Design the sequence.
């Protein structure tokens, strides 16, 4: 594909939503959209030099822009609070974690116990499916350090949920669905 | 398990917001972009220089929380009412008849010829369908109760670790060193409470029935029953009592209905109840697809043999077509690492052929397959000679009514 406009449009169509989703975890919608568009503008300017794995690169650029953004520096809301805020009431249904039934609130509460960088590691690995190599480039740390964060997050989350589910005997909450007839 | 759960924490609203924004902004964004000039810049390396990767403990299949401990070998004695006790180590090789039975030594040739035969057998099974895919299984896994002071200690260590990370600014190398230090402290904590290791062994054994809807958005049901704690020996039970008979069974509801889609295979999140029947039926096409999926999985430490074993278990217990199952057996037949232990019995006393594969750290993954039907009877994960998980499949098939078992 030779035409740069075509190439860029494909990039935009494919990754705009991913990048915006990532930025929305940090800032509100208006700011998020601006940061996202600026990120793609950078991609346009560097179109010929983009690496093969574009998504991690885009996320890295977006992350840098966020760090410099005036709004973010003054923002108090953490990553987990944003996730909690974006989670609608109807999503609070029960599901299994190993042998325990845990509802979403318990899970998010468990997340709050994690350092933010570890939560981010989980997000990049599980929501974006990035490999440790790719994710490390996004956050700008070594692969080794990234793996430690991810491993720690998983371990803590499992342990924490084990406690949450065991400690609180909560009834299964959530909408009931009509049985199939 | 944690990754899957975490992935489901992603709020739906996020996707809704991004979709709406994309639609609203696309035309203007593109127009604005193309009207700006592109300044050619020198080539920009976006990735860090590669450094040696730190291999964390991988290969742990069962997500074992800090408290659960793998206990020592020993056949579980004392059958619980009406149930055959699970075997703590390998399935027992069945007796020989007529003088020369199957050799208990694991053999490579037997594995391959058995798997090829199983492929033909699988192909002969009739294809079926229905509204719900039903699976009933009996699972055994080790359990243990750590006293409250252990959990207090764990929380304190986590707090200390985090404080140290905050103090040092969490630079890469320091982070790794801190992590190693606290892992060692955790091991010492365990030893401080039980210097000789956990004093008793116990297993939770339970049955689970699951109805997976074929229709997207249909009702999914999981029913749990006959849960019990089993002690391998009377000594284990006596010790447990002396420790205050702590609760080993967590409370949980007997039956849960919801409409959440669940993956059929955690290593292959793209396979769903809706598309599993469309998986390739030729060895080449299926192998290509599995290899591609394996390539996408995060490393390090991933092994194709282990991935294939796990995927195989998932596909053998999912409503795959006979053709896909046959192709799967042919792929397994080609794997050099898979060995056969000949005729064995599963925990329920059913006869089958035992197959196994070992991962790099010595963990053994076992399968027991019914020779006549090529169906999966049981699988197990064995670390250092002890089960960390053993699942016996009692029944699976299609049914049209939620809560009903298939007619066999």
Sequence:
């Amino acid at each position: 594909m030779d035409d740069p406009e075509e190439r860029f449009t494909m990039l935009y169509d494919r990754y705009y939503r991913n990048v915006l989703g990532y930025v929305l975890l940090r800032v509100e919608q208006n700011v998020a959209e601006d940061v996202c568009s600026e990120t793609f503008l950078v991609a346009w300017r560097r179109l010929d030099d983009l690496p093969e794995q574009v998504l991690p690169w885009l996320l890295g650029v977006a992350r840098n822009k966020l760090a410099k953004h005036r709004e973010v520096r003054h923002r108090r809301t953490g990553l987990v609070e944003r996730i909690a805020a974006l989670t609608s009431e109807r999503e609070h249904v029960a599901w299994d974690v190993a042998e325990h039934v845990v509802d979403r609130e318990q899970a998010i509460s468990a997340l709050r116990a994690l350092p933010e960088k570890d939560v981010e590691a989980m997000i990049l690995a599980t929501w974006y499916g990035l490999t440790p190599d790719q994710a490390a480039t996004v956050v700008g740390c070594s692969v080794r350090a990234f793996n430690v964060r991810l491993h720690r997050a998983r371990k803590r989350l499992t342990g924490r949920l084990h406690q949450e589910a065991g400690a609180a005997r909560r009834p299964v909450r959530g909408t009931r669905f009509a049985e199939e007839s | 398990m944690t990754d899957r759960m975490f992935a489901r924490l992603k709020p739906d609203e996020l996707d809704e917001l991004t979709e709406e924004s994309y639609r609203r902004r696309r035309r203007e964004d593109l127009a604005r972009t193309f009207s700006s000039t592109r300044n050619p810049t020198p080539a920009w390396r976006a990735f860090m220089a590669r450094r040696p990767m730190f291999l964390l403990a991988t290969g742990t299949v069962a997500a074992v929380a800090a408290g659960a401990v793998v206990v020592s070998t020993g056949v579980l004695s004392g059958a619980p009412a009406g149930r055959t006790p699970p075997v703590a180590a390998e399935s027992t090789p069945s007796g020989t008849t007529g003088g020369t039975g199957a050799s208990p030594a694991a053999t490579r040739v037997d594995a391959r010829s058995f798997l090829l035969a199983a492929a033909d057998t699988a192909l002969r099974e009739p294809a079926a369908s229905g509204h719900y895919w039903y699976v009933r299984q009996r699972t055994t896994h080790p359990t243990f109760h750590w006293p409250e002071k252990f959990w207090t200690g764990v929380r304190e260590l986590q707090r200390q670790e985090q404080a140290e990370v905050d103090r040092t600014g969490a630079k890469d190398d320091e982070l790794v060193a801190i992590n190693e230090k606290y892992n060692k402290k955790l091991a010492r904590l365990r030893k401080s409470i039980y210097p000789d290791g956990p004093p008793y062994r116990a297993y939770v054994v339970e049955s689970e029935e699951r109805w997976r809807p074929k229709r997207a958005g249909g009702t999914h049901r999981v029913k749990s029953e006959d849960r019990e704690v089993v002690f391998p020996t009377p000594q284990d039970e006596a010790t447990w009592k002396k420790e205050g008979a702590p609760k080993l069974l967590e409370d949980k509801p007997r039956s849960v209905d919801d409409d959440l889609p669940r993956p059929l295979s955690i290593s292959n999140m793209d396979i769903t109840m809706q598309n599993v029947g469309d998986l390739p039926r030729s060895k080449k096409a299926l192998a290509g697809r599995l290899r591609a999926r394996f390539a996408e999985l995060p490393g390090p430490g991933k092994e194709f043999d282990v991935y294939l074993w796990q995927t195989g278990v998932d596909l053998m217990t999912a409503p795959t077509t006979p053709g896909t199952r046959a192709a799967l057996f042919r792929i397994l037949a080609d794997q050099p690492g898979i060995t056969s232990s000949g005729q064995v019995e599963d925990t329920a006393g059913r006869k089958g052929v035992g197959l196994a594969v070992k991962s790099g750290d010595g963990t053994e993954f076992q399968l027991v397959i019914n020779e006549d039907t090529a169906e999966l009877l049981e699988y197990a994960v064995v670390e250092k000679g002890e089960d960390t998980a053993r699942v016996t499949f009692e029944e699976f098939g299609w049914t049209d009514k939620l809560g009903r078992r298939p007619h066999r």
Summary: The first strand of chain A starts at residue 94 and ends at 97. The domain at 79-169 of chain A is CATH 1.10.10.10 (Arc Repressor Mutant, subunit A). Confidence is low (pLDDT under 50) at residues 92-100, 168-181 of chain A.
